[in-house]
From TrEMBL:
It comes from Azospirillum brasilense. Pfam families: HGSNAT_cat (PF07786). InterPro entries: HGSNAT_cat. Keywords: Membrane, Transmembrane, Transmembrane helix. Residues 20-236 form the Heparan-alpha-glucosaminide N-acetyltransferase catalytic domain. Signal peptide: none annotated. It comes from the Bacteria. This is DUF1624 domain-containing protein.
């Protein structure tokens, strides 16, 4: 699941000796809401409850870019503002460790749930690396940070080298193909957004009056202050609730829909009748699910014994 696609990972793990800026917390809270809506749309599509073209529709692609970019800009901005009075090394390391552990946890869960598209360098991984790189660039003037951001984005969008196709370098970006991952946020071009935020932090000094007002503003600010926790919890809750809904109304998840389409196309191209092909393919997916073989079948993890069982299911469905 695209765990976005984004994450907030709050600010980069910088010192928090500087005061919090309410308007930044509120902006991060608004971005969290946008992210939750995007993730909910992905969940609905994956579970067969809707059919949003998240990876083809220009509007959805722009939404993803805007949401992720807003978090990166806010994080770069927060790093600069938080470091105005110096870096609290102990607090920085603690925050960095939280990010790294959260990123590792997301990767582990994604491997278990989506082995064909695991998250190996998603937004949390990016935030951890960006925070370290940002420390080295803290004292640069804003024009240099801005130019570096433009250069990172330009390189990420125009350069593709086979060298970076190697698994251990894919976190950098600059690949010749898009890897299968539910949340891929490589250094190039996305670190450019973080640098833009740092440049903004050099230019802008928010005053103490910039605080959220009203109940809604305070709720957004609260979410922004706890953005890492909100990020880690919102998607499991959304996905779990929508999964229950999908099961309740009998909706087919994405992998079953994909199998049905491919299976029926293969069957009819071999001379089978559409109605019979549809029934046979449905029988196969249903029986494999009941036998506990579906996940291994769809992810090509069958053993010799389970392959024989799958062949038996296919033969049985074909004879009905």
């Amino acid at each position: 699941m695209p765990i976005l696609l984004t994450s907030p990972a709050s600010a980069a793990p910088a010192t928090m000796t500087a005061r919090r800026v309410g308007v930044i917390d509120m902006a991060r809270g608004v971005a969290l809401l946008a992210m939750a809506l995007y993730h909910g749309s992905w969940d609905l599509t994956y579970l067969g409850l809707a059919n949003f073209d998240l990876f083809g529709d220009p509007l959805w692609l722009a939404a993803r870019t805007g949401i992720l970019g807003s978090f990166l800009i806010l994080s770069g901005l927060s790093l600069v503002l938080a470091a105005e009075d110096g870096i609290d090394r102990r607090r920085f390391l603690r925050r960095f460790a939280m990010l790294a552990l959260a990123a590792g946890g997301v990767s582990a869960v994604s491997v278990a749930m989506f082995p064909d598209s695991p998250i190996f360098f998603g937004v949390l991984h990016h935030m951890a690396v960006a925070s370290l790189l940002g420390l080295a660039l803290l004292r640069l003037p804003w024009p240099v940070l801005l130019l570096l951001g433009v250069a990172v984005i330009a390189l990420g969008e125009t350069v593709a080298l086979p060298l970076f196709d190697q698994p251990w370098l894919r976190w950098v970006g600059l690949m010749t193909f898009e890897p299968e991952s539910n949340d891929y946020v490589p250094l190039f071009p996305w670190f450019g957004g973080f640098l833009f935020g740092m440049a903004l932090g050099r230019l802008w000094r928010p005053g103490p009056t910039l605080a959220p007002g009203g109940m809604v503003g305070r709720w957004f600010a609260w979410a922004g202050r706890h953005s890492l926790a909100v990020y880690l919890l919102h998607q499991p809750v959304l996905f779990g609730l929508l999964s229950l809904l999908a099961m309740g109304i009998g909706a087919d998840p994405a992998d079953i829909r994909s199998f049905q389409t491919s299976c029926v196309a293969t069957c009819t191209s071999s001379g089978g009748e559409m109605e019979r092909c549809t029934a046979t393919c449905r029988c196969v997916s249903d029986d494999l699910n009941r036998a506990g073989l579906w996940s291994d079948f769809i992810h090509d993890r069958l053993t010799a014994d389970s392959s024989r069982k799958v062949d038996g299911v296919i033969q049985s469905c074909g004879n009905r």
